[in-house]
Structures are given as C-alpha cells and as structure tokens.
C-alpha cells in the first residue's frame, strides 16, 4: 500500500522535476549592471513586492498584479539561464490597460534599479541580453504591431531602439512574421523570422559615448554572433529598458488612445536570461 505521505512526496517530487534542468552554456563575462534573472524558487506573489521581485512590482501593468500577469512555463533554460534561474512569460488580456492608454494592451518588466533619470543603464557602453520563446497556447496576433523590448527616453518622446514583431503600422515592407530591430529613427536595422519553438537570443549593445547600436543573435544554446556593425544611433535622452508586450491597435492614427483591439485576447511572450552588462573595453558575453 502506498501511504498518503509517500504519495504526496511522489507528487511533489514529480512536480519539482517537471522543469527540464538542462541549462544553457552561456557564460557571463562582464559585470552585470541590471539583473533581470528570475530565481527559480520565487513564487508568483513574490513579483508583487519590491523586496522579492527582480522587477518593479508596480510598472508596467494595468489593475492586475504581476502575480496574475506572469506565467512560469516549464521550458528548457535559455542560453544564460541555469538550474537556479528560470524563464518568465509576460501575458496580456483585455484588462491589460496601463494608466489611460486605452489603445494598447500592455504589460512589461522593468528591472529594479533601472531608474528613468540618470540610470545606470544609460552611461558608458551597455549590452542588454534577452532570450525569447513562443508559447503555443498564447500566440501573438501578427496582424497587430507589437513592441516587445525597447529603451524609452526619459521624457517618453522617443525610443533609442525597438525590438518588435507583427505588422509595423505604416511600413508596408516589413514582414509581420519577423522579429525586427529598429533604430531611433524607426528604421529597421535587422530582422529574423520568429521561430515557433526555439529559444532566440538577442543582445543589443548601446554605446552612450559613441552613439552606436549593435545587434547580436543566436538560437537555442549557440553562441551569439554580431549580425550588424556598430551602427550610428542617437542614444541620448536617458530613460528605461522595457521588456514585455505592448500590442498596438489597428485602424487608428492615435494608437495610444483609440483603435481596435479584439476582446478575449490571451497572449504571451516568454523571456529568459534578462540582464544588462557593462560592455566597456569591448566586453560582451556571447
Ligand atoms: C545562475 O545564474 C545566476 C545569474 O547569472 C548566477 O547569479 C548564479 O550564480 C548561477 N548559478 C549557478 C549554480 O551557476
Ligand atoms: C487578429 O487581429 C485582427 C485585428 O484585430 C482580428 O480581426 C483577427 O480576428 C485576429 N486574428 C486572430 C486569429 O485572433
């Protein structure tokens, strides 16, 4: 006979082992300036408190708390994650309305310590690392334009870069099925197809002294490779890194406030290995 205590123990053990434990082999070689790794032992409500969340518990979200917004899918580790860190999925639904931005459906992560004014992420040379993976249960609707990761200037008037998916409004040449990296002028500098199953790893180096932007990319556990040169880009204006989902509406010229969003949406973007490193003297983790 299996005692109930044993049975409970078996259930606990099997749920603990549900998360594949293979870790990425990426090594972090440079000092971490902002740490967005998600400790594997956090519980959802830990994301509602400054004391326990790696992210700002109050931004960017609507009325739902991060314990309701975030999912923790049982996926393999991304390249820079390991046994003690895990992936996190940002989701949006009909209630994902930030402040009075009724045109958008939006939720996102801001790494604690990334202040809007004179933040540590906007001096010297910085590389933002993030890996993305798609959730087959919560696919994006690529008829819409999405901002997934970007750096927004302190006065909110511009983004130094955008990492986007879907249909870019007003740019008929862009392929909706690609991830696209745009510079401050909203000119696409690189793109790659969204992979339905692989981890896709990105690193974006912003040189705040020379005003350049450079993109690195790889899939799964492959080392990152430069896919652009260091391109001239206006990195001035301070601000913060935004990591999540901002879904624009269709059929409007006033995307912040109006336009069409269907009801019943349930979409997500899985992230792993989020960190900002100091790329002084050309240091970069590949
Ligand atoms: C896992 O990665 C985190 C973030 O880089 C690091 O702080 C930690 O030491 C690593 N743990 C192990 C067991 O490698
Ligand atoms: C995608 O979005 C468009 C525009 O909002 C909508 O008409 C369409 O039904 C959506 N498609 C799916 C599969 O949800």
TrEMBL record:
<keyword id="KW-0732">Signal</keyword>
<dbReference type="Pfam" id="PF18271">
    <property type="entry name" value="GH131_N"/>
</dbReference>
<dbReference type="InterPro" id="IPR041524">
    <property type="entry name" value="GH131_N"/>
</dbReference>
<feature type="signal peptide">
    <location>
        <begin position="1"/>
        <end position="18"/>
    </location>
</feature>
<feature type="domain" description="Glycoside hydrolase 131 catalytic N-terminal">
    <location>
        <begin position="33"/>
        <end position="282"/>
    </location>
</feature>
<protein>
    <recommendedName>
        <fullName>Glycoside hydrolase 131 catalytic N-terminal domain-containing protein</fullName>
    </recommendedName>
</protein>
């Amino acid at each position: 006979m299996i005692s109930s205590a044993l049975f409970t123990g078996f259930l606990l053990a099997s749920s603990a082992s549900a998360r594949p434990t293979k870790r990425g082999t990426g090594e972090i070689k440079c000092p971490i300036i902002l740490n967005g790794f998600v400790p594997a032992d956090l519980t959802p409500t830990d994301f509602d408190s400054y004391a326990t969340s790696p992210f700002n518990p109050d931004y960017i979200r609507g009325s739902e708390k991060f314990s309701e917004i975030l999912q923790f899918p049982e996926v393999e580790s991304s390249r820079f994650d390991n046994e003690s860190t895990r992936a996190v999925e940002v989701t949006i639904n009909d209630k994902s309305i930030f402040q009075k931005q009724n045109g958008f459906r939006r939720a996102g992560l801001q790494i604690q310590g990334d202040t809007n004014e004179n933040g540590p992420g906007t001096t010297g040379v910085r590389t933002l690392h993030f890996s993305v993976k798609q959730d087959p249960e919560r696919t994006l609707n690529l008829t819409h334009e999405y901002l997934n990761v970007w750096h927004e200037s302190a006065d909110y008037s511009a983004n130094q870069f955008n990492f986007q998916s879907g249909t870019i409004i007003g740019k008929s040449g862009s392929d909706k099925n690609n991830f696209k990296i745009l510079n401050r002028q909203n000119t696409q500098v690189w793109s790659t197809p969204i992979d339905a199953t692989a981890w896709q790893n990105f690193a974006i180096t912003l040189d705040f002294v020379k005003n350049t932007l450079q993109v690195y990319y790889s899939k799964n556990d492959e080392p990152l490779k430069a896919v652009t040169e260091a391109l001239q880009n206006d990195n001035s204006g301070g601000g913060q890194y935004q990591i999540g989902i901002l879904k624009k509406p269709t059929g409007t010229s006033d995307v912040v406030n109006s336009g069409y969003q269907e009801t019943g949406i349930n979409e997500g973007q899985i992230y792993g290995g989020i960190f900002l490193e100091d790329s002084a003297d050309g240091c970069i983790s590949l």
